[in-house]
Amino acid sequence: MKKYFTTAFLLCFLSLAAAAQGTGADSLHFDRKVHDFGKIDTRDGAVSCTFTLSNDSSSTVNILSVNTTCSCTTAKWTRSDIPAGGSGTVEVTYSNDEGAQRFDKAIYVYLTGCVKPVVLHIRGTSFKGKKDKR
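Request: output the structure for the sequence above.
Response:
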């Protein structure tokens, strides 16, 4: 039994060491981590922005998944391999249907070779404009 645990521990340690030699978060860069929509009228509907990921490593990477903190925020991302020197995108859409308020939504991007997710933010202030008099 002791031999089993020693072997399991050794395999886990070697796996972590191999993963640490992968791409590394230092070689993956987003063009920005925060997008501020500023003031947006609720009558204008959903708003979107795109974050661009640059792969400056010598390995191919993938965006494994993207999670948002609210159902009012959705994301689409590059599903194919991102080669060394290539780039990928994460497109984020805020529904803008929660009424007049300030918002700051977090988006968690999980990448191969990175232990922790990259956290992106969208923020702004929604307001309800006055109706046009006709």
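The first strand starts at residue 28 and ends at 30.
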